[in-house]
Amino acid sequence: MRDTTKHQGLRNQLANVLQAKGITNEAVLNAVRKIPRHLFIDSSFEAHAYQDKAFPIAAEQTISHPYTVAFQSQTLKLQPGEKVLEIGTGSGYQTAVLLELKTEVYSIERQHELFKKTSMFLPKLGYRPKRFIFGDGYKGLPEEAPFDKIIVTAGAPFVPKALLGQIKVGGKLLIPVGDKEQVMTLFIRKSPKEFEKHELGDFKFVPMLEKKN
Q1: Is 64 considered catalytic here?
Q2: What dihedral do alpha carbons 87, 75, 102, 140 form, nearest 10°?
C-alpha cells in the first residue's frame, strides 16, 4: 500500500491531462490528484496507472479510463451530501471519487469476487460508502430510493425502468446505453412521469450483467 511523492507527481500530471481534455470541475480534479489509483489495479500495471487508460481487474472487468470517471462525475454535478446510487462498484475507484466529492454512496456489484475484494479494500484506504450491496444493478436499490443521482459504470443494452423510477424529481441518471459501444445518456427527472434525455457521446464499457450468482 505504498503511495510516494512520485505517485503524487504522476497524479498531478494526470489531472492536467484530464483538464486539457475538458474536465473543469475542480472538486473532480482534486479527487484525481488525491486518490492513489495505482493501488486499485494489478501491480504489474502500476507503471501505467496514471495514464488515461483502462486496465483489466478481477472477474474479467476493467477499471475505467480516468477521463471516463471524471467525465461521469463532472456531468452529474454532484453536491456534498447528495444521495448517490452507483451501479457497478468494480475496483472501487469511481466509488472513491464519489466519496471525495462528499456524497452519500450506495454501491451495487454483481460479481461476487469483486464485491468481496473491493468491500474489504476501500475501507483500508479510508473510503466508506453508506452501503456495499452484492446484487443486481438492473433492480437498483428500491428500499433506499429515491436518490439524487444514479451513476451506472457498465454498458447497459437498455435503460432499466427500475433505475428511472428511483430518481428524485430534479435528480439525474447517467448511464452508458448500447451493446458493443455505448452512448453516454443523461436522464433528468422533470416530474413523476417526465424525463429529459441528453446524449453525450460514445464510450466503451464492459457489459452490465443481470441476475446475481
Answers
A1: yes
A2: -20
